[in-house]
Amino acid sequence: MNIAIIGAGPAGLAAALRLHQQGFAPVIYEKVREIKPLGVGLDIKVYGVKELEELGLLAEFEAISNEAVDSIFYSNHGQEIYAEKCGTHMGYQHQQRFVHRGYLQMLLYRTVLERLGPDAIQLGIGLERYENTAEGVRLHLETREGEKVVKDVDVLLGADGIKSVVRAQMHPTESSPKFSGIRMYRGVTVMDPYRDGHTILHIGAPRIASMIVYPLHLDYEGTGKTLVNWVVETEGEEMYEDWNTPGEVNDLIPLFDDTKLPFLDVQQMLRDAKEVYVYPLVDHDPLDRWVDGRVVLIGDAAHAMYPRGGNGACQSIVDGRVIAEKLAAHPENPERALQEFEAERLERVNRLVLANRGEAYEVIRRLVQDRTDAQPFDDIEQVLPMAEADAIFSKYHALAGQPRPGFEDGHTTGFRTWEAEDSWENQHAVR
Asked: What positions belong to coiled-coil segments (predicted)?
């Protein structure tokens, strides 16, 4: 079976590796001339790590990433709202890890070339349009030099991201990303480690001044410093979608005047940023179909979502496994394989897209802000009861495909930590 993939991002590369495991030899077409390690941080959840392990890449992935141990949520004043353990520390069978998007992409890229051969990725050639034929799919491609190329294949996977050419043809009235009214500033800072070097912080309130912070590398380039990824969301006017647009960090610093954490000066972290980019927070409205004959959308082309909850990249990687399994199960009937893929994945992932649009589990910070009128609280239990927070987190994790261990019988595995002169274990005692 001749399979073409449009796009050499994580979705397309992971799909190629999964297809190779099933005995296929797909070819990826990518319009850029060179793959570079661009981007900032990704939070790879336990099921994403499981996918990478099944690809035989766990050791290599661990070498370029950092384990997540704790996830802690704070108000705009720096008061703790909620915390949970991550990965194996929560009871899952796999770790949760932080990684630079570009490093993950390059790992997948090198592996595709090693396993499928140097011709498996065709750079500098992009898709203009496709057409379904009686025998399969005809690709109308164009090189960066303007040369027109026509290829006939059995199946086409559109993994060409939020501005997908494949999606635009399949859904011409539903191909423009929707702006949320929020600008996202993303940056990295080389700094001393905070806490134990394995904690993701969720600070502030969505739609006002929200910050996510997590460490990508503990000994960055042998300096003993930590490379920390941070993301700030704040309301702003719509802007051109370009991940490489520089952001002005001085616009962000005053937003955190009231945020006081004993272990991290967030304003100094912003001042010391190595690089800062600004991008409009966008996604797509969920689609009612991902399949057109022998053409299928995967990854952001199918289900671009807000980067809340850390599931966008992970869900894209899952797509590759499921589509490979379906094609392997029905090699003589690709149309059936694609329809089964859509039936298994579309509704579940669409619910996740909408959940992320509604702030996902980050909603607990907005709830606290609303219930306290953005003022400091005396007792978080009177503002956001543990049982309510647990229910929010359990529902979202289950929706993403990783139900929280310990909740099957109603047992609470969530906890709150308290900054005190006490042992690490006592600070993190299960409530």
From this structure: none
Q: What is the pLDDT of residue 112?
A: 98
Which of 58-67, 171-180, 415-424 is predicted least confidently?
Answer: 415-424
Contact present, 175 and 331 (Cβ < 8 Å): no
Residue-by-residue DSSP string for 371-399: HHTT---S-HHHHS-HHHHHHHHHHHHHH
Long-range (24+ apart) CB contacts under 8 A made by 252-255 are: 252/185, 252/209, 255/204, 255/208, 255/209
H or E element in which residue 348 lies: helix 334-357
Neighbour count for residue 16 (Cβ, 10 Å): 30
Cα angle for residues 222, 228, 232 (degrees, 5° grid): 160
At 117-127, the pLDDT tens digits run: 999 999 999 99
Label residue 39 left, alpha or beta by phi (over 0 means left) and psi (-120 to 50 means alpha): left
In this prediction the pTM is 0.87
User: Edge-to-edge strands of the sheet including 125-132?
Assistant: 125-132, 137-143, 148-153
Q: How far apart are CA 93 and CA 46, in angstroms?
A: 8
Contacts of 104 (CB under 8 A, 6+ apart): 10, 42, 44, 61, 64, 65, 313
Residue for token digits 């981007």? 39
Q: Provide the mean pLDDT of the chain.
A: 88
Angle subtended at Cα 21 by Cα 16 and Cα 27, rounded to the nearest 5 degrees: 30
The DSSP call for residue 135 is: S
266: left (phi over 0), alpha (psi -120 to 50) or beta: alpha
Q: How far apart are CA 353 and CA 283, in angstroms?
A: 8
CB 323 within 8 A of CB 298: yes
Structural domains in the chain, sorted by start: 3-33+124-176+287-357 (3.50.50.60), 178-283 (3.30.9.30)
**Per the structure block, which two tokens stand in for 60?**
């290599």
Residue 410: its pLDDT value, please?
A: 41
pLDDT at 396: 80
The per-residue pLDDT for range 175-194, each reduced to its tens digit, is 677 776 778 899 999 999 99
Amino acid at 94: H
